[in-house]
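Task: sequence design from structure.
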């Protein structure tokens, strides 16, 4: 179910992935009249979002939502919503509808119910899900040994979203309180693309392709499932 695309230069990766995303979204619009794009934060996909924002698509019919979010206000520099508004919801894509994860609730656990209700209004199956992977094998905010991660990894989970409390590390930074899509939620999609760069992460990914506990390397939940096509885009 997984295809791998390797590039020698990051700008070649971005060019190829922009074209792929545009094709997938255009096909969804043609087939269903609407499209849903689920995106992740981080510095790696930012150039992709900036380029994709200029694509000639009927953005008014495209809904954009996050795969995960730190429980911080949208004005915070760690906010994934802030990143998406800066990089993707501009140019042609400024007319797209954006559905954020962060609510006015004090905690992610308290805000999950409202976010869940909002996400259930998104057209399914989701047209395209774009996730990354950390050096610890996490994807979205499904961190190894995080509170809520084991439940979120269950493919029979009836929730699209869940609160996660990660163990603080160099990878998580100070913002350990997260709201994330569950694996079951991510699998309600037509296509999943995993995007990351660097030899160190590729080594983790190659390890994750081998049998082992999903809880230790949560990216395994996407790699080893057989329900949804998965594509890896990687460059050094």
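Answer:
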């Amino acid at each position: 179910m997984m295809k791998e695309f390797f590039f020698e230069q990051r700008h070649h990766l971005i060019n190829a992935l922009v074209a792929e995303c545009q094709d997938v979204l255009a096909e969804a619009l043609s087939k269903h009249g609407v499209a849903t794009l689920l995106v992740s934060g981080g510095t790696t996909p930012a150039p992709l979002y900036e380029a994709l924002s200029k694509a000639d698509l009927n953005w008014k019919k495209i809904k954009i939502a996050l795969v995960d979010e730190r429980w911080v206000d949208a004005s915070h520099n760690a906010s994934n919503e802030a990143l998406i508004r800066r990089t993707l919801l501009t140019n042609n894509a400024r007319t797209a509808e954006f559905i954020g994860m962060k609510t006015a609730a004090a905690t992610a656990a308290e805000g999950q119910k409202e976010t869940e209700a909002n996400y259930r209004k998104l057209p399914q199956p989701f047209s395209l899900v774009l996730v990354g992977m950390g050096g610890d094998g996490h994807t979205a905010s499904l961190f190894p040994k995080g509170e809520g991660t084991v439940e979120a990894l269950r493919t029979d989970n009836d929730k699209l979203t869940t609160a996660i409390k990660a163990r603080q590390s160099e990878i998580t930074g100070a913002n350990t309180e997260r709201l994330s899509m569950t694996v079951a939620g991510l699998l309600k999609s037509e296509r999943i693309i995993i995007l990351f760069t660097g030899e160190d992460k590729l080594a983790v990914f190659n390890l994750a392709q081998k049998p082992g506990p999903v809880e230790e390397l949560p990216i395994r939940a996407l790699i080893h499932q057989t329900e949804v096509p998965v594509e890896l885009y990687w460059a050094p």
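The beta strands are 2-6, 35-39, 62-66, 68-70, 97-99, 128-131, 161-165, 177-181, 192-197, 230-235.
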